[in-house]
Backbone:
């Protein structure tokens, strides 16, 4: 009887070793895939309806990207140029920055683009947030970001999150600027034009050789007489060759009617175009 118990015990131990060997191999597979952390209680898990494996469940962890700290940030000239562009425009969509970088010969994919924005945020130069539904993150400069762009904040003036009331206009203007820069124009942002004087100021100035174009973005209804006054003021500005109006489809009729009311020598210097589809 003692011999029988010894044989039974030996068979039990051999069976358990075989089971542990199979389980160990399976668990090694899960561990290699990053799905198993540490020894613990086991349960059966099915992945994609295929393999079952006994895996640890008491102490598992999720792997997440390590957030950047300010100490880890090393800014390149590309970073500083992009932050300056954001500061000049005051708020831009993340995908607009992707198109900007591509136009300058440094295209990046979506993941790398988000990582860049995280770097700038960690450096304290921008802030980013999902503000609009069905749209990417919006980036805007901090006070340090504005200063890094060489822009002086007046006493008491702060760099703040963009106003919801003007956000669509601001984002559309950034896309329009990109159109001109792709065509070889240099751009003077609205904030610099505004600082140069009082009264109505265009949304931007695009210059290429002898062409000096005052650019307007219009997404909201204005009276025809008001639009005609703006066009006339722009075209009579010394040194300006044309004024370009970027609009939504619903604005086309009223803007073209306002242009038709101008003096003949002014009407021919007005160009009307639809906004880029992404911000229309």
Residues:
């Amino acid at each position: 009887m003692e011999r029988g118990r010894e044989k039974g015990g030996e068979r039990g131990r051999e069976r358990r070793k075989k089971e542990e060997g199979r389980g160990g191999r399976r668990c090694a597979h899960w561990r290699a895939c990053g799905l198993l952390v540490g020894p613990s209680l086991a349960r059966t898990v099915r992945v994609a309806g295929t393999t079952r494996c006994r895996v640890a469940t008491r102490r598992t962890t999720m792997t997440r990207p390590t957030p950047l700290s300010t100490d880890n940030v090393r800014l390149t000239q590309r970073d500083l140029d992009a932050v300056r562009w954001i500061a000049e425009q005051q708020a831009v969509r993340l995908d607009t920055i992707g198109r900007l970088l591509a136009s300058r010969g440094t295209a990046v994919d979506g993941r790398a683009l988000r990582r860049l924005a995280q770097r700038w945020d960690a450096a304290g130069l921008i802030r980013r947030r999902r503000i609009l539904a069905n749209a990417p993150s919006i980036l805007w400069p901090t006070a340090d970001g504005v200063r890094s762009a060489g822009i002086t904040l007046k006493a008491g003036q702060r760099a703040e999150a963009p106003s919801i009331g003007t956000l669509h206009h601001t984002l559309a203007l950034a896309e329009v600027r990109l159109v001109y820069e792709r065509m070889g124009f240099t751009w003077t942002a609205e904030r610099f034009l505004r600082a140069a004087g009082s009264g109505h100021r265009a949304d931007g100035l695009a210059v290429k050789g002898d062409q000096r174009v005052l650019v307007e973005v219009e997404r909201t209804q204005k009276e025809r007489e008001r639009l005609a006054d703006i066009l006339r003021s722009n075209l009579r500005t010394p040194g300006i060759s044309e004024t370009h109006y970027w609009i939504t489809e619903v604005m086309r009729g009223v803007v073209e009617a306002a242009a038709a009311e101008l003096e003949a020598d002014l009407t021919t210097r007005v160009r009307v175009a639809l906004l880029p589809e992404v911000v229309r």
Notes: Confidence is low (pLDDT under 50) at residues 26-69. The first strand starts at residue 42 and ends at 47.
